[in-house]
């Protein structure tokens, strides 16, 4: 069995995993929203640029993208990146590429009548997106986006390969130093990853209920009229 000190070391690694995952998901979400809107824009140049980005970074393995961000990008830009920064950059770009397609599909699932109604009341493009399209698209977007967020969290284990002391690296270090039995170490590690994944799933479920309830109230109001 693991001692309290050994659990503490694993929890420190788990906290690094949570931070890297949360920041990557947050930044990746911003990229995905911009990409999902851009890929449907009227500008052919903007659509083409976004499509190239999506196809390029969906076609590159996350591990390769991580090594590129950690070792090649600093040389190209002439800057110094920590392994923390490189990990977040790689995971955010990777999530943004996949998330763009999720956002695009959700936006396109909105009935055309919603856009036509928004135009009829003289809403601008930005207002239509903010008040009509995006709130409805969120309900469609959240389930696959929750799965994508969990995949990003699991992919965060790759940062251990470039030297960041996350949960997996802590577990590997403890196994190498034989401070405890490998079964106990990796069983605890498995449980911690599972708990983090369930926390993400819970957040997504709560968001689905919140935005879904808002749409249901809106539909009931329209029916009452």
Name its key features.
82% helix, disordered C terminus, 225 residues, mainly alpha, 8 helices, MetI-like fold, single chain
Rg on CA atoms, Å:
21 Å
Give the class-level CATH name.
Answer: Mainly Alpha
Query: Can you identify the CATH superfamily?
Result: MetI-like
CATH T-level topology: MetI-like fold
- Poorly predicted segments: 217-225
Describe the structure.
The chain contains eight helices and no strands. The protein has 225 residues and is an all-alpha fold. It has one domain (4-224): MetI-like fold (Orthogonal Bundle). Helix 1 (4-38) runs antiparallel to helix 6 (125-155). The longest helix has 43 residues, at 182-224. The model is unreliable at 217-225 (pLDDT under 50).
Question: What is the topological layout?
Answer:
Blueprint: H1 4-38, H2 44-58, H3 62-77, H4 83-108, H5 112-120, H6 125-155, H7 167-176, H8 182-224
Helix pairs in contact: 1-4, 1-6, 1-7, 1-8, 2-4, 3-4, 4-6, 6-8, 7-8
How would you concisely characterize the structure shown here?
With 225 residues, the protein is mostly helical. The chain contains eight helices and no strands.
């Amino acid at each position: 069995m693991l001692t309290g000190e050994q659990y503490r070391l694993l929890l420190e690694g788990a906290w690094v995993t949570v931070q890297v995952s949360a920041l990557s998901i947050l930044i990746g979400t911003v990229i995905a929203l911009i990409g999902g809107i851009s890929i449907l824009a009227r500008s052919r140049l903007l659509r083409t640029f976004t499509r190239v980005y999506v196809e390029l970074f969906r076609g590159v393995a996350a591990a390769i993208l991580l090594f590129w961000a950690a070792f090649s990008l600093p040389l190209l830009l002439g800057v110094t990146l920590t392994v923390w920064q490189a990990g977040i950059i790689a995971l955010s770009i990777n999530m943004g590429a996949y998330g763009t397609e999720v956002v695009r599909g959700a936006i396109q699932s909105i009935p055309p009548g919603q856009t036509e109604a928004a135009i009829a009341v003289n809403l601008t493009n930005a207002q239509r997106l903010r008040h009509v399209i995006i709130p409805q698209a969120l309900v469609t977007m959240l389930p696959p986006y929750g799965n994508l967020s969990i995949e990003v969290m699991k992919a965060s284990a790759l940062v251990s390969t470039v030297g960041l002391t996350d949960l997996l690296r802590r577990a590997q270090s403890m196994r190498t130093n034989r401070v405890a039995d490998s079964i106990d170490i990796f069983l605890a590690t498995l449980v911690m990853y599972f708990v983090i994944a369930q926390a993400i799933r819970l957040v997504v479920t709560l968001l689905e209920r919140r935005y879904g309830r808002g749409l249901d109230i809106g539909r009931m109001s329209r029916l009452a009229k």
